[in-house]
Amino acid sequence: NADSALFKAKSSGREGYAFYEQELTDYARQRVELASSLRHALDNDELRVYYQPLHDLRDGRQVGMEALVRWQHPQRGLVAPGEFIPIAEDNGMIGAIDAWVLEQACQQMMRWNGEGNTLSFVAVNISSRLFSRGELAQKVASVLTQTGLPPEQLELEVTESAIMEDPDAAQKLLISLRALGVRLAIDDFGTGYSSLARLKRLPVDKLKLDQSFVRGLPDDAEDAAIARAVIALGKSLGLKVLAEGIEQRAQADFLRELGCNYGQGYHFGRPQPVASKSVDPDNTGDAKDSHPSTRN
Ligand code: C2E
Ligand code: MG
Ligand code: MG
Ligand code: MG
């Protein structure tokens, strides 16, 4: 009856609340623990750079690699950047982490060049927390000099929402980076609400269509409309468009027909560490399947 249903709802609500509180406490404790062990992660050599291929949608050719950081935690195993980048942004470690990834990626790109690889560029993510600080462009310049990597072989990715946190600071930073000759891409495009007036003035080369709009393709009419609009926008502003999170051939085909230039996703290949030999025996077939894997 209604009363007992209400009673059940209330009591499970209370239990739910207690459970939620417990979870929050666990979450907060975990975060504090992670924050303190993250301080030693760089010194203890626990960070890893994984690389995910970026492909030309028209001929299928691989054009680049995106560097994606992971944390090989001694107890927890491989920790995803979504779990520790926000912590690093709060505890001030992010500058050191992004600089380390940048160095690793530029060195690795030089190695690929030396091995006769024809990749055009390596892409590196930059946190918004580094925007307001003047030293980023200097750091990029010094890494390019130290590693000898030609600037046009480095692409820096900044998220659209990071740009919109402080558009004027972002614009200044992007102009100073552009002056170094590196490529610039706006990551997670479509989720950050940038104005067209702003976008027009940013010195960028590429829009990375956020994977949330790729997920429902080719059937979802709204995702299709957004993908079509972003691709048209890129074209009219003279920017290349890359679609993130392509897991199925049908998505790659659909995006190519819309005129999207590049693609990234499990359909082409998952993020992976660089194999010590030039051929990774573990890699066969993995690029084409779409089921979730712990290797990401
Ligand atoms: P992002 O730059 O947008 O990178 C793409 C993310 O999508 C990666 O997650 C990648 O593994 C995942 N992904 C790629 N293809 C697929 C697919 O087909 N399906 C699905 N479901 N996911 C796919 P990851 O490596 O966990 O990185 C998450 C985010 O963490 C990155 O998003 C980036 O914003 C940030 N990040 C990663 N490395 C760094 C870094 O070195 N510095 C900074 N500041 N941020 C980083
Ligand atoms: Mg990225
Ligand atoms: Mg993205
Ligand atoms: Mg993202």
Task: Describe how the helices and strands are arranged.
Layout: H1 2-41, E1 47-56, E2 62-73, E3 77-79, H2 81-91, H3 94-114, E4 121-125, H4 135-147, E5 154-159, H5 160-165, H6 167-178, E6 183-189, H7 196-201, E7 206-209, H8 221-237, E8 240-243, H9 249-258, E9 262-263
Parallel strand pairs: 2-4, 4-5, 5-6, 6-7, 7-8, 8-9
Antiparallel strand pairs: 1-2, 1-9, 2-3
Residues 66, 125, 157, 187 line the site of one magnesium ion.
Description:
- This protein has 296 residues and is an alpha/beta fold.
- The protein contains nine helices and nine strands.
- Strands 1-2-4-5-6-7-8-9 form an eight-stranded mixed β-barrel, surrounded by four helices.
- It is globular and about 50 Å long.
- The structure holds ligand C2E and magnesium ion (3 copies).
- Ligand C2E binds next to strand 2, helix 2, helix 3 and strand 6.
